[in-house]
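Need a sequence for this fold. Nothing fancy.
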């Protein structure tokens, strides 16, 4: 797994700052990284968390999430096809919601290029390449240039089960489709308040597909 040294510096700074200072730092970091990263914009942060209750009141069981991430890695990440969108499609439109092919460049904003787990196996981190050749990718860049941050949110298809502890659990039939970029992520994380931060492309290399 690759390690980007600049990630930890940025995330520590973001965690210690208030919202105004955080927006200012994000905008400055975005401009600086864009000036020397060969027209590539990369984000890093938390993609998902296992066993914890998210802001939507749901729990992704560790065994189920680990299984789906492994399949997602093999089928999508390692083949360069781990595409996502800016904000989730409506779940009521099942065909559009389940389409993670990335063939519609009008709606595709990014692709996940690597995932890895925290030491305790509960928090999934990842690197995300923003696709600046697409309109939605340029919108993501514009959001960061304004000093705002986005988080990652799991787009998956599954049943839900309310268990005896009163919590709503994602069923074992879960199918992980994509990680979308959203303004209000449901994942609760200590990593830069759960938001994705810009990192230096030059410090992290992956195979181009």
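Here you go.
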């Amino acid at each position: 797994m690759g390690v980007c040294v600049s990630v930890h510096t940025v995330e520590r700074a973001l965690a210690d700052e208030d919202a105004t200072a955080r927006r200012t730092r994000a905008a400055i970091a975005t401009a600086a990284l864009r000036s020397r990263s060969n027209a590539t914009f990369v984000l890093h942060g938390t993609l998902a968390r296992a066993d914890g209750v998210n802001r939507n009141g749901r729990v992704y069981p560790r065994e189920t999430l680990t299984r789906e991430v492994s399949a997602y890695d093999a089928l999508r990440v390692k083949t360069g096809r781990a595409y996502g969108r800016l904000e989730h499609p409506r779940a009521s439109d099942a065909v559009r919601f389940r389409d993670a092919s990335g063939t519609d460049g009008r709606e595709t904003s990014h692709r996940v290029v690597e995932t890895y787990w925290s030491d305790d196996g509960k928090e999934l981190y990842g690197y995300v390449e923003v696709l600046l050749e697409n309109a939605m990718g340029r919108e993501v860049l514009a959001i960061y240039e304004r000093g705002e941050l986005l988080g990652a949110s799991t787009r998956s298809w599954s049943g839900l089960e309310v268990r005896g502890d009163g919590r709503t659990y994602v069923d074992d039939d879960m199918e992980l489709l994509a990680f979308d970029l959203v303004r209000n992520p449901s994942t609760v994380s200590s990593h830069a308040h759960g938001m994705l931060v810009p990192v230096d492309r030059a410090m992290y290399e992956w195979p181009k597909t």
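For context: The chain has one domain: 5-200.
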